[in-house]
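Changelog entry: the WYL domain-containing protein record was regenerated in this release. Current contents:
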Amino acid sequence: MHATTTPAGTHARVASDQLTLLLALVPYLLDQGQVTVTEVAAHFGLTAERVRALVSLIALSGIPGETRQYLHGDLFDILWDEFETNDRIVLTHQVAIDDSPRFSAREAAALIAGLQYLSALPHNADTDAIASLMAKLTRGASAPPTQLAVAQRDGGTTRNIVQTALSTGMQVEFDYLNARGAHEHRVVDPLRLESVDSDWYLRGWCHLREAVRTFRLDRMSDPRVSGVRLSAHPVDVLLPDTLFQASADDVDVRLELATAALPLLADYRPERSELVDSGARTRTTLRVAHDHALKRLVTSLAGIVTVLEPAESRRAVLDWAEAGLAQYGGDEQSPTSKD
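Regenerated C-alpha cells:
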C-alpha cells in the first residue's frame, strides 16, 4: 500500500483561504458586537461547524508582545460561556486592529456630511447602506465627529410622480418656483426626465408658456398626475450645454475668487474678468436671474467665492448663511457684512 500525500500547493491554498476568512470574520464580529454562530454561517455561506472552528482559531491568534511571546494580553479572546452555552460569539479582547489608522473627528464629519447629502438625492434608493456607512464612520473615528446639518432634498416622491406621468402618457401638474423666485402653477406634458450632476430635470411642453421648458424637480411642489392625455408636439428637445441661461432681467454680480478656481464658474459664463493680487486672484462678473441662484452658487463654493457687489446680493448671501448657522442652535456669532 502506498500512503496518499497532499501536494504542498493544496496546503498553501487552504491556509490562504483560512486567512482570508479570518480577515473578513474579525471585522464583522467587531462591527456586530454579538452575533450567533447561525447568523455568521448564513452571512458567510459556511457551515456552523466551520464557523465554530474559525472562532476557536481566532482565540489562538494575536501578535507577540514586548517579550516576543504570545501572552494572554497578546491574543484575541471571546466570552467562552456565551460561545459554549448559547452558541453566541462575543469578542472581549482584540489586538492589532485598534492600532490601524483612524479618521479624525473632522475628517469623519466631512465624510458623513457628504453621505447625508448623497442620501437625499432621488437616485440613491439604497439609503440603508448609506446609513450603515455613516454609523461605521461615527464608530471608527478617533473622536466623536462634529454634527453637521445638511438640508434634505426631494427624496424621490416628485421623481416617481413624473415617471408615472411619463409611463402612462399623462400630463403632470405642479406649483413651480421659477428663475425669478415667483410661484406659478404649471401644466406640463412630460417628455424626458434626466439628471445633470446632482440635480434632476424634467423637460416638457409647458401649456402656460406654450413652448418646451426645463424644470428642476427640487423647485416643484404639490406635483400630481392630472389624468389628461399628452398633447401632440415635438419631443426631441435637448437641455442647453450650460447650466445658466442669460436674460434681459438678470443682475450683474461681481465676485472674487482664486484664479486657479475660475474654471469652476465656466458653466455660468463669467465676464469682464481681471487679475488682482499679482494674478493670484480674479474678479469677474456673473449674470444671475435672482438671488436664490447666487446663494446656491456661493454655498456650493463655500470659502472659495466672495461676493463683492451689489450690496443687495451680498446681504442676501449673508442672510442665507445666518439662516443656516441658526439651525445649529448655538451661540456662535455670524459675521457682519462690509458693504
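The chain is about 35% helix and 25% strand.
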